[in-house]
Write a structure and sequence with these properties.
Blueprint lengths: L2 H17 L5 H37 L9 H27 L6 H19 L2
Helix pairs in contact: 3-4
C-alpha cells in the first residue's frame, strides 16, 4: 500500500467515524486490491511449496526423472513467435497511430524475437 493510499484510507475512516456516514463501501474498495495481492501471494507460496515437496518425495523414492530442456529449440520457437507478433503490432500501430511512441509496443517484441533467432542461428 502506497503512502497516498494509506492516507486516503485513513481519511475515509476518520470521515466515517466523525459523520457516521453509511458510505463505508469506499473502505472496502480500497482494501480489495490489497487483500487480492495478499491471497495471490499466499496461493503462489503454497503452490511452490507443494511442488518442492512433491519433487523431494519423488527424489527420495527414486522415481524422479530430470527432463532435458533444449534452449536452442525454445529460442527458435519463441523467436519466431515474438518476431511475427512484433511485426504485426508495429504494422498496425503505424497504420492506426502513425509514427508515435506506441510503435515501441511492436518494435520491442520484434527486436527481442530477432535476437532470439540470431541466438538460434549462432548456437550450432
Amino acid at each position: 500500500m502506497t503512502p497516498e493510499q494509506y492516507e486516503t484510507l485513513l481519511q475515509i475512516l476518520l470521515e466515517i467515524k466523525e459523520n457516521g456516514e453509511v458510505g463505508s463501501y469506499r473502505v472496502l474498495l480500497y482494501l480489495v486490491p490489497n487483500i487480492g495481492i495478499i491471497f495471490g501471494t499466499l496461493l503462489l507460496f503454497f503452490l511452490f511449496q507443494w511442488w518442492h515437496k512433491q519433487k523431494m518425495a519423488l527424489i527420495q523414492s527414486g522415481q524422479y526423472k530430470p527432463w532435458s530442456f533444449d534452449i536452442r529449440l525454445y529460442s527458435f520457437f519463441l523467436g519466431l513467435l515474438l518476431t511475427f507478433t512484433g511485426f504485426a503490432l508495429s504494422f498496425v500501430f503505424i497504420l492506426v497511430l502513425g509514427k508515435s511512441m506506441a510503435m515501441l509496443g511492436g518494435l520491442i517484441p520484434f527486436a527481442i524475437g530477432l535476437g532470439l533467432l540470431t541466438f538460434y542461428k549462432q548456437s550450432k
